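FAQ

Q: What does a record look like?
A: Structure on top, sequence underneath. For example:
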């Protein structure tokens, strides 16, 4: 039969070859990811005493910081579940605590707010937070924001989570807290969707808080890549709303760490900005942040930012410095994930560059 239809014969041959190539490439790609031996021991039972950053070199008491999380458990009128992002709260919480600040946690409705836990992003600090009885009591019994006394705090931090888009912007108590602290030269911090708390804040002089302020938040592009119908779900795009309020929006690369500081206002673009944002808040409060071992995820961010700003060769130099010279951990799987993001964006060249960097990171890890 195939002799009668040579085109069919060659088409089947080409299709078979493509399938084989895709299978081989997929197998090779998976082999670039860390093995169970590289990942190391299970960290799900981590306690705060297991983390020198928290258990050693205890800092003197410096006051209190208020963390505010969303109470919204669905995205508007849809059935899409949401809540606050655990990693954005846990990492900021421990930075504040390690630097001498007691942390209170509040939400619009009080009580136990809904939480979003992304298993792929969980690290030892995040599991420690889940295993921390004091932190868990606070987060399961959050203070209602209308009961907050702003004078008691040196700073406020708004954790992200898409729910913040629905119950932060119109909350008068949140606006009062932000206005009082900002005008008292205290520090305001917000990450990812957390800056939704700032969009309707008006100062005593009648001007928007955001007017002519340099700020960052989850971007339109980041929102639309994950939720193509975001425009019909959310009350607004956060980037657009901040800009409409007169902010000078500072946009970093998609899903890479990026923060903005405008005096006592500190904002971050996405979850990967949380560590740096929290430590920048400590600096804004007038203190030198306590030394902390940089995580493998943050080191991967350094590689990705180097690639974004200076290209493949510079990214390889950063990999070599981290893995071989400094002998520090590097989450190369995060580089691979950004390769997948490149495919979603239709950037084939970028995909292969990032796969190449993942492979290089694996080879350098063997040289340690």
């Amino acid at each position: 039969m195939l002799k009668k239809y040579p085109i069919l014969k060659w088409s089947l041959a080409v299709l078979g070859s493509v399938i084989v190539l895709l299978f081989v490439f997929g197998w090779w790609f998976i082999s670039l990811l860390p093995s169970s031996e590289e990942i190391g021991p299970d960290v799900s039972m981590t306690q705060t005493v297991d983390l020198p950053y928290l258990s050693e070199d205890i800092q003197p008491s410096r006051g209190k910081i208020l963390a505010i999380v969303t109470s919204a458990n669905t995205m508007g009128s849809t059935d899409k579940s949401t809540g606050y992002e655990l990693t954005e709260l846990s990492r900021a919480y421990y930075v504040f605590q390690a630097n001498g600040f007691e942390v209170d946690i509040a939400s619009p409705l009080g009580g136990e707010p809904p939480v979003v836990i992304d298993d792929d992003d969980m690290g030892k600090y995040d599991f420690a937070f889940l295993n921390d009885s004091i932190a868990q009591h606070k987060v399961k019994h959050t203070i209602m924001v209308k009961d907050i006394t702003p004078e008691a705090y040196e700073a406020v931090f708004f954790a992200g989570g898409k729910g913040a888009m629905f119950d932060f912007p119109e909350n008068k108590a949140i606006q009062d807290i932000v206005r009082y602290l900002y005008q008292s030269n205290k520090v305001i911090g917000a990450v990812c969707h957390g800056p939704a708390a700032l969009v309707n804040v008006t100062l005593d002089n009648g001007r928007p808080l955001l007017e002519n302020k340099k700020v960052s938040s989850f971007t339109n592009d980041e929102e639309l890549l994950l939720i193509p119908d975001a425009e019909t779900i959310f009350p607004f795009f956060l980037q657009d709303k901040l800009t409409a309020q007169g902010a000078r929006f500072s946009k970093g690369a998609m899903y890479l760490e990026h923060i903005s500081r405008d005096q006592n206002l500190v904002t971050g673009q996405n979850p990967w900005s949380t560590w740096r944002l929290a430590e920048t808040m400590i600096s804004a409060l007038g203190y030198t942040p306590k030394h902390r071992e940089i995580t493998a995820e943050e080191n991967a961010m350094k590689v990705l930012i180097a690639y974004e700003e200076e290209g493949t060769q510079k990214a390889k130099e950063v990999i070599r410095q981290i893995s071989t010279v400094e002998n520090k951990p590097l989450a190369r799987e995060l580089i691979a994930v950004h390769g997948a993001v490149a495919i979603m964006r239709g950037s084939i060249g970028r995909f292969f560059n990032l796969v190449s960097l993942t492979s290089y990171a694996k080879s350098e890890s063997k040289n340690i």
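Q: Is there anything notable about this one?
A: The radius of gyration is 23 Å.
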